[in-house]
Amino acid sequence: MLTQEQNERLTRVGPGTPMGDLLRRYWYPVATDQQLGENPVRSVRLLGENLTLFRDRQGRLGLVQQRCAHRSVDLKHGIPTEEGLRCPYHGWMYDANGQCLEQPAEDPAHNFAARVQIAAYDVQELGGLIWAYIGPQPAPLLPRWDIFVADNVFRQVGTTTVPCNWLQCQENAVDTVHVEWMHGAFGQYALERKGITDEAAFNQTRNFLRHHIKIGFERNAFGIQKYRLRDGEDEATAASWLEGHPLVFPNYVLIGGPGREELQMRVPVDDTTTWHLAYQIYHPADGVSLPPLGEIETFDVPIEDYPEYVLGQDVLAWPAQGPVTDRTVEKLAETDRGLIMFRKMLEEQIQVVEDGGDPINTFRDPAANVCIELPMEHYPGVNAYRVGTARFGRGPNNPVERYMDLLTGAAAR
Ligand code: FES
Ligand SMILES: [Fe+2]
Questions:
Q1: Domain ranges within the chain, ordered by starting residue
Q2: Which residue out of 41, 65, 70, 76 has the highest number of ligand 1 atoms within 8 Å of its CB and is therefore the one to mutate?
Q3: What is the Å distance from ligand 1's center to 67 Cα?
Q4: Residues with CB under 6 A from ligand 1
Q5: What residue's CA is closest to ligand 1, atom 4?
Q6: Same fold, 27-133 and 146-412
Q7: Among the atoms of ligand 1, which is closest to the Cα of residue 92?
Q8: Cα–Cα–Cα angle for 141, 42, 267, nearest 5°?
């Protein structure tokens, strides 16, 4: 249980708040390359701030303030040009540094454009995602986590706008036992309600229903490693107990299994909105080389209509705790000790930033940022893509189904 003040400290993300200052030390995905391909000018809301993201006609990225300096038209309606972005109202044009380059109706002799600049932010591309950094300079490096730089994999990302605070989404990362109920018992009930009798779906829920004999949490360099041992598993051999999987500070969790990994990313849009990305990679069958696959496949994960889908169950639970859950009335139990560890870590890292330091997972040495490997449980000898598809491939318009021939190598035969 927290006081009202502690709860605000951990949940408010706007500029000048303690958590807002900590969260501004990290890079966030703000669009996928496929989304920006569909529309090269997009509005972005991040940490309570409104911005405009664009790709100019030379293919360069820009991230600037929401509104035009002239008379405040929203630049999401802007026209991309060779040099930058042009406001649709009177044609003022800005480059990626926010510098105004042209004011077509004004006399160039006055040189007014040179004296107009709007706010601009760092923006980069990695792993099919467009990333923004809006914190203090100098910006840390955009972390090259292994999942973003892995070779010869199929990538897709399922996105959802979740109407609640980021922290309750992320606390799920250290809430181990919810799996039995949310994905087991509730999952079965959802199948029953929808009249779905598919055997694979029931098998999945049966697997989730297995009782946790032991759970464990351990701090590591990247965040918190989380361990579980369930009915039917052996302490001496279970990868989920021996190796576990990581909460990556502050807002990711890496899950998955053989042949498939999923980084769940919780992007704080504002105090009561979170953009959730389920970023998935699938490894092909042994010996199969994938051709270049282009933009990342991007699909929507619906928030309420899909309770029989694992991620649908989680995104149903988080806003069901309220827009910003009231932690002054919660009654944390023994199995919530991972949450308590995480909250302590957040407090401690807020303090690091207040003392002028770099919080964990900020990288500044390029040599140490080529490929950052996350400690993840391994399942040797299990055929990757099949397990991945059987367990996780279901979902509305899930793109991986269309790539199965490539992943299995059937397309080449
Ligand atoms: S409002 Fe943008 S050019 Fe006038
Ligand atoms: Fe879950």
A1: 27-133, 146-412
A2: 70
A3: 9
A4: 68, 70-71, 73, 87, 89-92
A5: 90
A6: no
A7: 3
A8: 50
CATH number of the domain at 146-412, please? 3.90.380
| E-assigned strand segments in 135-272 | 154-162, 212-219, 223-230, 245-248, 252-257, 260-270
In this predicted structure, what is the pLDDT of residue 392? 43
Closest CA to 244 of 401, 148, 374, 71: 374
The confidence score (pLDDT) of residue 28 equals: 99
Identify residues whose C-beta is under 5 A from ligand 2, the ion.
314
Q: Is the domain covering 27-133 a CATH 3.40.50.2030 domain?
A: no
3-state secondary structure (DSSP) of residue 260: strand
- C-alpha of residue 156 to centroid of ligand 1, in Å: 37
pTM for this entry: 0.95
Query: CA 311, CA 300: separation in Å to the nearest integer?
Result: 11
Ligand 1, atom 3: closest residue by C-alpha: 90
Spell out, as residue ranges, where the chain has pLDDT lower than 50: 381-393
Q: Are 2 and 331 in contact (CB under 8 A)?
A: no
Rounded to the nearest angstrom, the distance between the alpha carbon of 180 and the centre of ligand 1 is: 55
Quickly list H helices, 220-354: 239-242, 310-317, 337-354
Q: Which two tokens stand for residue 167?
A: 């922290």
**What's residue 386's pLDDT?**
44
CA distance 45 to 29: 11
With contact defined as beta carbons under 8 Å apart, do 147 and 289 qualify? no
Ligand nearest to the CA of 318: 2
Q: Which two tokens stand for residue 270?
A: 């504002």
What local confidence, expressed as pLDDT, does residue 205 receive?
86
> What does DSSP assign to residue 145?
B
Q: Is the dihedral of CA 58, 59, 61, 66 positive or negative?
A: positive
Confidence (pLDDT) at 259: 72
pLDDT at 92: 98
